[in-house]
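User: What would this chain look like folded?
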Amino acid sequence: MITVKQATVHDLNELAPLFDQYRVFYGQPSDEQGAREFMWERFAHLQSVVFAARDERSGETVGFAQLYPTFSSISLKRDWILNDLFVAEKARGQGAAAALLKAAAAYAKETGAKGIGLSTAADNTKAQRLYEAHGFVKDDEFLAYYKKNF
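Assistant: Here's the prediction, encoded as structure tokens.
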């Protein structure tokens, strides 16, 4: 049984190792202290909303989703960016990711948001299937650009 709740800074000890594993999954070196500090900053400055998935049988936090706020000038509404979604490998296939997506969608609706945007690696087909199964639609209208190294 997986339950999801909105996390607070009091959940940081359980979330930081998962956030570190998430970063390692994306090719970054492990840095649990850096992960803890980064998440603490988001909580302390109210810069993101985090949902935590808990396996009620084991009592462990097994996943998280992190939303960042943004705004749509065209629609004059709030938008959310689902920047991070991660479930520990041992807990995959038990519905934690789906539960986190449902919690994020409910929160977006509750806050009157226009929607939720996300991006994932082009080769992460498993995640793409999950997102599409939960109503996310691939954007074929707009191209994304990114500038770095300045």
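The chain is about 35% helix and 25% strand. If you want, I can go into more detail on any region.
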